[in-house]
Design goal:
The complex is a heterodimer of chains A (about 140) and B (about 80).
Chain A lengths: L3 E2 L1 H6 L16 E6 L21 E2 L9 E2 L6 E3 L3 E3 L9 E6 L10 E5 L14 E4 L6 E2 L2
Antiparallel strand pairs in A: 1-8, 2-3, 2-7, 4-5, 5-10, 6-9, 7-8
Chain B lengths: L3 H60 L7 E4 L2
The chains are: A mainly beta (about 140), B mainly alpha (about 80).
């Protein structure tokens, strides 16, 4: 797979999502580390966190330094995120999602990214640091 | 010729248009409330971000030098 937006997000930004859609610089936006051997990515049928959380390695916390439109028009960015002392299965991709409701079944998936340098990653038990590119995490063209 | 059916259809359309307009007014009102609540969140986020970064730094120091080296994932 390549980097892609979940269809829930693509429809949602036009008002046609299943769930309330994210305020990307105000909501509780998170990124989880995906073991694709547990659950393969399906951008069309996977709607919310409950559909894929069984394939997430480690825990997730609210991202910091959220920005929209700062690095470029339509671009989303955040500061580096650390996953302390991570262990578990090999991670093939990243799942961005909106955890504003704090309920997985109402937390819409946003994007799945697998092109970052360092993926796939086999955790060694130390910290894992996510460092977004200077141009941001993704951009709505 | 203006038939009874036409009169009724016009009345029905006008009634529904008024109902939609009233419902949209509620949405607009809620949007205004949402914008205010959102501004309150945005105001709080920088201080929270700073506090979390400080906490993580202290937690890392507390772990000492024995932890495995950090692994980095970088955006392309």
């Amino acid at each position: 797979m390549a980097d892609g937006f979940y269809e829930e997000f693509r429809n949602g930004i036009l008002g046609g999502g299943v769930h309330a859609q994210p305020d990307m610089n105000g909501n509780d936006i998170r990124v989880a580390l995906r073991d694709e051997d547990t659950t393969a990515v399906n951008l069309a049928t996977q709607i919310d966190a409950a559909d894929v959380s069984g394939a997430w390695v480690g825990s997730h916390t609210a991202l910091a330094g959220l920005t929209v439109g700062s690095s470029a028009v339509g671009a989303f960015d955040h500061t580096d995120e650390t996953y302390p002392l991570l262990s578990g299965a090999t991670v093939e991709s990243l799942d961005y999602f909106d955890y504003q409701t704090a309920v997985e079944s109402t937390s819409p998936l946003i994007a799945n990214l697998d092109s970052w340098t360092g993926l796939p990653l086999t955790p060694n038990g130390g910290d894992v640091i996510l460092a977004p590119h200077a141009n941001g995490v993704f951009q709505i063209p | 010729m203006v038939t009874e059916a036409l009169v009724n259809a016009r009345a029905r359309e006008a009634e529904l248009a008024a109902a939609v307009s009233a419902a949209r007014a509620v949405v607009n009102e809620k949007h205004a409330e949402l914008a205010s609540a959102r501004a309150a969140v945005i105001d709080l986020l920088p201080a929270w971000d700073e506090a979390r970064l400080e906490l993580r730094g202290l937690e890392r120091e507390a772990l000492g030098p024995d932890q495995p080296p950090a692994q980095t994932l970088g955006g392309e």
